[in-house]
Design brief:
Keywords: Membrane, Transmembrane, Transmembrane helix. The chain is mostly helical and 229 residues long. It has 2 domains: 148 residues, no CATH class; 38 residues. 76% of the residues lie in helices and 0% in strands. It has 7 helices and no strands.
Length: 229
């Protein structure tokens, strides 16, 4: 308790708290100012684009100058979805008069111009009101789908051909191995082996009996000669 009663410690503690509070308040205030500036700049860019798209739809002003200013202004938009959608619109406005785009999409240049400008105005209005962006029109989706092919044709490159299916080579059927032939061969081999084995003892027995017959005959003759004497 004596430590907190020291006036020097209290002065240093108060100064530290004041310094931390001042830093935090300054950082939060700067963050709010930066957000407000970005919001103001985005709204100003959206209003500028709105005026530019209305003038382009009505046919007033230079097209090249409009596209250049619109592209630079779209890049400064903070919302990612709004920026990407408007970038698609500006790119199609630059390419909608190409004959390849008109032929592949089936949308005329005048119709595409009005459609793209109206959709851009809807996107900008939703962004200013902080609402969800509208869906992409069907004709615009069709133009986006044929954009790459149309540009490749316009630049002189051949359109990509679909890959041909790979033909399968004919497969020669292999003969199936059945167990019948092998079993028959194995059975025949076993039978021949058994026949050979059974024939060998019989032949040995006959040869033994034929060899012992003369010896018995000689013994009988010797015995009869003994009794004769």
């Amino acid at each position: 308790m004596d430590f907190f009663e020291n006036p020097v410690v209290l002065v240093l503690l108060g100064a530290g708290v004041s310094l931390v509070t001042s830093v935090v308040v300054t950082a939060l205030h700067a963050r709010q100012i930066r957000r407000a500036e970005l919001r103001t700049a985005t709204r100003a860019a959206a209003r500028t684009l709105t005026s530019a798209f209305i003038a382009e739809r009505d046919g007033h002003g230079d097209k090249t100058e409009f596209l250049r200013e619109a592209e630079l202004t779209v890049m400064s938009m903070t919302d990612r979805r709004t920026r990407e959608r408007l970038a698609d619109v500006v790119r199609l406005l630059r390419e909608h008069e190409l004959p390849e785009v008109e032929q592949l999409s089936g949308v005329g240049a005048a119709t595409a111009k009005r459609l793209l400008c109206d959709h851009a105005l809807e996107v900008l209005g939703s962004h200013l009101r902080a609402e969800r962006l509208p869906e992409v029109p069907a004709l615009m989706r069709k133009m986006l789908s044929v954009e790459e092919e149309a540009l490749s044709i316009h630049s002189g490159e051949s359109a990509p051909r679909p890959s041909e299916p790979i033909e399968k080579s004919s497969v020669t059927p292999r003969p199936r191995h059945t167990g019948g032939g092998t079993t028959a061969k194995g059975t025949g081999a076993r039978k021949s082996t058994k026949t050979t084995k059974s024939a060998a003892p019989k032949a040995t027995g006959k040869s033994g009996r034929s060899a012992s017959a003369p010896a018995e005959k000689r013994d009988a003759e010797k015995e009869s000669a003994f009794w004769d004497d």
